[in-house]
Specification:
TIM Barrel, three-stranded mixed β-sheet, eight-stranded parallel β-barrel, alpha/beta
């Protein structure tokens, strides 16, 4: 198999790459390297416009990212070695990335395609808690309530906070039970919702490799589901992550990889995280051979990606990759606020417009409150995200930029305050699995506000 041959090459590079001190990698390659290529390629955020409208800037961001990867590669924390590629090898690997994919089964099958900036096709919706902790006694109801949303094309599961009432431990038999119980409950939820074939992103409870390896077999998650592998910030991997990737390649599973670049960290501000995130997505393709990719620049103190700087950075990354490669790239919607707050809906709308106009194939989440609070999720914000994505499809980046500025003004300066929402059982009725009247009223009010701004939701 072609991916098996590539896998052997990756593992060889992992074991034969140059030994490197991790601090040297962080400082010389990430901190200094990002700063150098940002300056060389003239990447600049003007501070006022959250959606990039300059094609040449997007292309320069791509070239800067390729150069950064060619100079430093990726770091394996397990053995202290760097994986390295030439610029030619990088471009050849990117050219081989798929631009179309079928996930799910039967009438729930979905064809995922690359979208480009200003694409008239609406992005698909990946709804769910995005790995956030969900109460075990409410897990089934929570997953079912997402799956029954018509606009949700795929489910991204949450992580069980307990397993059979016990506290799970990573890298123990308890973690294996977490993975299996996640599969059992999520598949049951799909059957109850009448959407048994819906594709699921999994295994959310796999904090190490063992839960993924067990729940991706023998009656667990299915070949039509989507299996996630992460990158360690910034530009790092490990044996655990490569164990997952190796298992998924050998089982013929659909691989989805993601990375989160930290704003204000080693990569610096908006310009640096745009280039570092683009480079991170490239490294994902080089190491894990995923069919799809997701990005989420992350503000460490506000715990979101909905600031002007973060919106611009991830949008520029999406534009850079979709203009210059066949890669299918998703935008993670990660607001600071929680359910039953208008603030959450404003953040969701701003990110959905920015990422749709920038070429996101799918909108993922929303990941409310950075998953800081157990079960602080609800499907209504996923529905709203899908509605905004449909309305923004085909919008020019200039139009999207002006719209995002108006939406962001509604929450500007409020993200560091008290934005905590409510848990699922306070936002939804556990018997009917419908949103409570107060939450629907807020949702209707914000929909009207978006309509007044010219965003026609339907």
């Amino acid at each position: 198999m072609r991916n098996t041959s590539r896998l052997l090459d990756i593992l060889d590079r992992m074991e034969t790459g140059p030994l490197t001190d991790e601090k040297d990698f962080d400082m010389k390659h990430i901190a200094m390297g990002v700063k150098r290529v940002v300056k060389e390629f003239g990447i600049k955020f003007d501070g006022a416009n959250p959606v990039n409208t300059d094609d040449d800037m997007a292309d320069r961001c791509f070239r800067a990212a390729v150069k950064l990867v060619a100079e430093g590669g990726a770091y394996c924390k397990s053995n202290g070695r760097c994986l390295r590629w030439t610029e030619r090898e990088i471009l050849e690997a990117l050219d081989a990335a798929p631009n179309v994919l079928v996930v799910g089964a039967d009438h729930e099958a979905r064809t995922v395609v690359q979208r480009r900036p200003e694409d008239a096709r609406a992005p698909q919706v990946i709804g769910g808690p995005l790995g956030g902790l969900v109460r075990e006694d409410q897990y089934l109801a929570t997953m079912q309530s997402y799956i029954q949303e018509p606009l949700v094309d795929m489910l991204i599961t949450g992580t069980l906070d307990t397993v059979y009432g016990r506290d799970p431990r990573a890298r123990s038999p308890w973690e294996i039970l977490v993975g299996w119980h996640e599969a059992e409950l999520a598949l049951t939820a799909a059957r109850r919702a009448g959407r048994e074939g819906i594709a699921m992103f999994c295994v959310s409870g796999a904090s190490s490799d063992i839960a993924e390896l067990s729940a991706t077999s023998y009656g667990g998650f299915r070949p039509t589901d989507i299996h996630m592998v992460a990158m360690i910030s910034e530009h790092k991997t490990s044996y655990d992550l490569l164990n997952k990737a190796t298992h998924l390649v050998k089982t013929g599973s659909i691989i989805h990889a993601y990375c989160n670049t930290i704003y204000g960290g080693l990569a610096g501000g908006a310009e640096g995280i745009a280039v570092a995130e683009t480079a991170g997505m490239i490294i994902l393709q080089l190491i894990y051979m995923p069919a799809t990719h997701a990005g989420a620049t992350y503000h460490p103190t506000l715990t979101c990606n909905t600031t002007l700087e973060n919106l611009w950075a991830l949008g520029l990354c999406l534009q850079a990759l979709t203009r210059n490669t066949p890669m299918i790239v998703d935008g993670v919607n990660s607001p600071a606020a929680g359910p039953m707050t208008k603030l959450l809906l404003y953040e969701v709308a701003a990110a959905a417009v920015a990422y749709t106009a920038s070429g996101a194939a799918r909108l993922m989440g929303p990941r409310t409150e950075a998953s800081k609070h157990i079960s602080h999720v609800s499907p209504l914000e996923a529905r709203f995200m899908g509605e905004v994505g449909r309305a923004a499809a085909g919008m020019s980046r200039e139009q999207a930029n002006e719209l995002v500025k108006q939406i962001e003004a509604r929450y500007h300066g409020q993200l560091g305050g008290d934005v905590k929402g409510v848990p699922f059982d306070e936002a939804y009725d556990l018997h009917t699995l419908r949103p409570r009247a107060a939450w629907v009223a807020m949702y209707d009010d914000v929909r009207d506000e978006m309509g007044a701004l010219g965003l026609a939701l339907r």
